[in-house]
Design brief:
Largest sheet: 6 strands, parallel
CATH class of the largest domain: Alpha Beta
Shape: elongated
Order of helices and strands: EEEHEEEHEEHEHEHHEH
CATH topology of the largest domain: Rossmann fold
CATH architecture of the largest domain: 3-Layer(aba) Sandwich
Number of helices: 7
Strand order of the largest sheet: 8-7-6-9-10-11
CATH superfamily of the largest domain: NAD(P)-binding Rossmann-like Domain
Number of strands: 11
Helix content: 25-40%
Number of domains: 2
Distance between the termini: 61 Å
Length: 262
């Protein structure tokens, strides 16, 4: 199996992360205001000046990443002999937490999956596709920013810690695998769970689940996915899926809580 291929960033920053920006300089410093360093769990990109100063900035950014609710903040650093930097100036760094984007997980790399990834490309969403078939797990068939993993999708689905920021769309080449994936995903607090297919497939899948699992199906699963359209063209189906996904989950605005009675 091939490893995950993370595409070129092209200005896109991994999330969650912390963007560290030199906001102010007094005296001498290795970087001017506006210098940036992006820090995430697996590394960093850019520089705010190097040396022990940058190490301390990295350490603070890591503390923010470990925090449940990181807040933006300004911190001042004096570049002194004790820090191993004799510039003598003072640098103020602005730490800006970048929240995790919502992620769309597509199980299956077929025609509709490829079309859907193309429709979602350019939106503020992470898109990941999983497929064990070498001939379909083709990086060149997907947009540059799509994450493609050539692997068996069922173990991945079982182990995944999905939550409300995640949407899962099941659309593999095999109905039995589709059902197994749905069964593995039913217990996860997903923001959206959909299965490609017809109303007949929906009824068959529901009937094949244990009785206690049918309640979860009724509450969680959308099958068929997408708006009802008179077309079987993969691109048209992908557009209908994307429209529903954006309306029901990605761009859905939470209803305001009712004001407490006085």
């Amino acid at each position: 199996m091939e490893p995950i291929r993370l595409s070129e960033l092209s200005g896109e920053l991994p999330r969650p992360g912390v963007l560290c920006t030199v906001a102010k300089v007094i005296g001498s410093a290795p970087q001017a205001p506006g210098a940036k360093m992006h820090v995430w769990a697996g590394g960093f990109q850019g520089t705010v000046g190097g040396g022990k100063f940058e190490a301390e900035v990295l350490a603070h950014a890591r503390l923010m990443l470990a925090s449940a609710r990181p807040e933006a903040s300004l911190r001042e650093y004096t570049l002194c002999r004790e820090m191993g930097q004799c510039c003598g100036g003072k640098v103020t760094v602005f730490f800006e937490p970048l929240a995790r984007r919502k992620a769309v997980h597509i199980f299956g790399a077929g025609h509709v999956s490829r079309a859907l990834a193309a429709v979602l490309d350019g939106l503020d969403l992470e898109v990941a596709v999983y497929d064990a078939r070498a001939e379909w797990a083709d990086f060149d068939a997907f947009p540059k920013m799509t994450r493609l993993l050539h692997t068996e999708p069922l173990p991945l689905a079982k182990a995944a810690g999905y939550g409300p920021l995640d949407a899962a769309l099941v659309m593999t080449y095999d109905h039995d695998l589709d059902l197994a994936l749905v069964d593995a995903l039913l217990d996860k607090p997903l923001g959206y769970l959909g299965v490609i297919g017809s109303l007949h497939k929906s009824r068959v899948f529901r009937a094949r689940l244990p009785i206690n699992r049918r309640v979860l199906w009724d509450a969680s699963v959308r099958c068929p996915i997408g708006r009802k359209i008179p077309s079987k063209n993969p691109k048209a189906i992908a557009v209908s899926m994307a429209a529903e996904l954006l309306e029901k989950w990605a761009y859905r605005v939470a209803a305001p809580k009712a004001a407490a009675l006085k």
